[in-house]
Amino acid sequence: MAEDLIHNTNAGIERLLEIMRRLRDPQTGCPWDIEQDFDSIAPYTIEEAYEVADAIQRRDWAELEGELGDLLLQTVYHTAMGEEAGHFTFQTVVGAISDKMVARHPHVFSDESRDKSADQQTADWEKIKAAERAGKEQKGTLDGVAIGLPALLRALKLQKRAARVGFDWPSTDEVMDKITEEAAELAEARDTLSQAEIEEEFGDLLFVMANLGRHLGLDPEAALRAANAKFTRRFEGVETRLAEMGKTPADSDLAEMDALWDAVKADERRS
């Protein structure tokens, strides 16, 4: 019966769950899959989430389908290990998120009015989440912001939490002033302090830059991804122009590559 399910291409999620059970079977499964645990799989989960975001940014819908499957596999993997350890099952995970979505959308799933602004819905959502945190004995403002988040995303979430209780600069002017202050401290640290102290000052500057993005209504992570993509595109343009000259970056120098970089930028602006 299980063998039929594994080869039934129309069986949906039950097929994938059975495939994972077979992979993790201590007697007949895959040695690599059997050896894995939550800690070893967690980095793959993060990587797959970023690959989903990358496919979306590139508007590659065919690839997105595959990446979403890879991300779903991570959930199936963790739930399989959770079931083996007696912590939870795939069905209890599905049940928990379903209950949460119903509870957090009373304007959709109960008698509460849907006639409210997006800002009011966001405020209501945060009240519900705060009540959930209280039920988990998370009393502090910053409780529940996952430590394992990417640092830039966690900085943004910490700042948003603090802002909700009034701990925030009133405008971007104060944030810009703080950036100037932190940049000056970093410059001083570079010349006079230890490497650990330089790292601390650099972190302070990054933290305030993330805060500036929040004040400007920007997603710092998305802005940095866009900057990475722009750098990649322009540097590849430099490499293309060097190749047309029969050269590689290793055959060039900074002055020549800077000139080609400016030419690539100029072509982008014209187009």
What does this protein structure show overall?
- The mean pLDDT is 91.
- With 271 residues, this protein is mainly alpha-helical.
- Helix 2 crosses helix 5 (61-85) and helix 4 runs antiparallel to helix 5.
- It is 75% helix and 0% strand.
- The protein contains 13 helices and no strands.
- It is globular, with a radius of gyration of 25 Å.
- The longest helix is centred in the N-terminal third of the chain and has 25 residues, at 61-85.
Tell the overall outline.
globular
Low-confidence stretches: none
Structural category is mainly alpha
Give helix and strand order, one letter per element, not per position: HHHHHHHHHHHHH
How would you state the average pLDDT, rounded?
Answer: 91
Q: Please outline the major beta sheet.
A: none
**How much strand content do the residues show?**
under 5%
The N- and C-terminal alpha carbons lie at a distance of 60 Å
Number of strands: 0
Number of helices: 13
- Rg from alpha-carbon coordinates: 25 Å
Bin the helical content. Answer: over 70%
